[in-house]
Amino acid sequence: MKLAAIDIGSNAVRLQITKVIEYEKIITFKKLEYVRFPLRLGHDVFTSGRINECNKKRFFKLMSAYKNLIDLYEVDSFYGCATSAMRDSENGHQIIDQVRESMDLPIKIISGEEEAEMINKAILSSLDNQNYIHIDVGGGSTELNIYQDHQKTHSKSFKIGTLRKLAQMGSEEKWEEMNIWVRSHTVPKGKKITAVGTGGNINKLFELSNPVTKSRRMSINRLQRTQEVLKNLTVDDLLNKLQLNPDRADVIIPASEIYLSVMQNARAKNILVPDVGLKDGINHYMYETHFPTGDKVFELNN
Which residue among 69, 150, 250, 256 has the highest number of C-beta atoms inside a 10 angstrom radius? Predict the structure, then answer.
């Protein structure tokens, strides 16, 4: 079985085509194709409230290219989710409707809570019975999930994101609301809690931290040191010395500030970086929609 997931974010639009392998009650999602295109829809929405005509045309071209790849791979099922930028855009629903009708691409604009639930499907299998706070930072929103004993106990979406911060839309009131929520819902002082980070920026921060082990775990101290190094570099250094893409170079420091703020308020000393995201959650959703999961075990093979 082949599945295709489209993640229409505020900073980029991603396509992942996955092969599902079922063997002895173990379900493996093997990545066949992954494309990320830096179509920064959130820049329009968070400054003017709508997606402009130029980016609307580029979005149609990109969806047409993704649909061609989906057809070439002869996938069995495909589904797309649009997040914060499309949610907040005056013309977001109209654009999605036009794509759905003209290209036969099933795309849904999902709420922040639905986005968190989708990502939850992808990371839950990698967690044990300890306490975790999951932090997913995007261009337009940050989704938080709290887990205790392998069960999600609390979840909330906040309109705090990297592009909003660049557009000076991340007000102090919103940040304080998020910090209060984190302090109110995490485990009591003295009990251990570990952060789980998803999103392109935390993966790049982990990579830049010079990890010394194969474990995808980073201490808050290492994350802070990595942030300080980045803050002391020029834009040219980020683009040429570290070879960051332009759409990553200007948001990676704002992203690190969000991750660190949540970790500090949750008193989390370490963060796991499992290299999964909404696209993986969409694949899980599609598989569960077609087949009952029962006692099957899910694994990722990227």
Answer: 256
155 and 264 housed in the same domain: yes
> pLDDT, tens digit, for every residue of 253-276?
999 999 999 999 999 999 999 988
Work out the burial of residue 168: count CB atoms within 10 Å of its CB; fewer than 13 is exposed, 13-18 middle, 19 or more buried.
Answer: exposed
- Residue-by-residue DSSP string for 6-65: EEE-SS-EEEEEEEEEEETTEEEEEEEEEEEE---HHHHHHHHSS--HHHHHHHHHHHHH
> What gap in Å lies between CA 131 and CA 84, rounded to an integer?
28
Q: Say what the pTM is.
A: 0.87
Give the pLDDT of residue 302: 53
Segments in the chain forming alpha helices (H)? 41-48, 53-72, 84-88, 92-103, 112-123, 162-166, 172-185, 200-208, 220-231, 235-236, 246-249, 252-266, 278-290
Q: Is residue 121 part of a domain?
A: no
Q: pLDDT tens digits for 80-122?
A: 999 999 999 999 999 999 999 999 999 999 998 898 888 888 8
Residues 86 and 138 in one domain: no
Residue 149 clears pLDDT 90, i.e. is over it: no
How many domains, the chain? 2
